[in-house]
């Protein structure tokens, strides 16, 4: 994700430039100093909370042996992506949003934009693979342990990162996003002090579908299938009081709770990033008239998803709340703390 229009401004003395000595400088909007301070504090709080929250998720899953499951490996990798958004993507984006200019150099702009795109796609692919994990856990529980193994989770994680890195870096460094529109871009959009991802209509349509539309359709379709199967299972279980099936009820409730939590995470992600993707898709077809402020607001709404995930875990997962207490009280340094039973009571 990235801002899709150059910075703008106007003062009583005429436009202010990002680089006054450059003939090709972007215009700059200067916020009042009080607003700048508030924005820096607000964005810094978002970034710091995102890093700390996802770091706790990572520590919990790595440290506690009981959490070493295929599903949690995917959650761990997703938390790494969210942590990188908070630690690497948000700070430069904060500087750009508040100063309305990019002062960190062209090469770092390309790296930052590539990583931003990569992490967004990585998160979507993780959510798609998590939906597959949940499908087997709920719909085919007897096959789950054979189908979804730690090596399979590793393959899913590798595909998520590998494909996302290829798309993110190739789009930016090979300039696939301006293919066919180079003349318009360099004559009307490109200026010194901007760090944007300009896309032609074709590039915007293809990238939006492949990076957002297709993974979203896959994940939503799988969760709808899970919902239908879960309802059928619930009706079937209600008509039986057999002891063995009572045990199955307990297992299904556990998997159902995990599936519900991960479905909420998927929903939060889609709601968070869809406004940006929608604007990114529509902008080329309305002559790039969507204001930069709109893109910036939707960009940060998308970033907020990375902050939300740890709170979703804390609200729905008892094991995460228990792990969090142990970590914050520094009990993880005690002997055999990694063997702690976090699920004495089932969620």
From TrEMBL:
Alphabetically ordered keywords of this record: Cell membrane, Disulfide bond, G-protein coupled receptor, Glycoprotein, Membrane, Receptor, Transducer, Transmembrane, Transmembrane helix
Q: Which PROSITE patterns match?
A: G_PROTEIN_RECEP_F1_1 (PS00237), G_PROTEIN_RECEP_F1_2 (PS50262)
Q: Which SMART domains match?
A: 7TM_GPCR_Srsx
The domain of life for this entry's organism is Eukaryota
The G-protein coupled receptors family 1 profile domain extends over: 53-313
- A Pfam family: 7tm_1
Its subcellular locations are: Cell membrane
Q: What is its main location?
A: membrane
Provide the membrane topology annotation. Multi-pass membrane protein
The entry's cellular-component GO terms read: plasma membrane
What are the transmembrane regions?
Answer: 37-61, 73-91, 111-132, 152-176, 196-224, 261-278, 298-320
User: What are the GO MF terms of this UniProt record?
Assistant: trace-amine receptor activity
Q: Which PANTHER family match?
A: HISTAMINE RECEPTOR-RELATED G-PROTEIN COUPLED RECEPTOR, TRACE AMINE-ASSOCIATED RECEPTOR 1
Q: Hey, which family's this protein in?
A: Belongs to the G-protein coupled receptor 1 family.
Annotated protein name in UniProt: Trace amine-associated receptor 1
Specify the taxonomic lineage: Eukaryota, Metazoa, Chordata, Craniata, Vertebrata
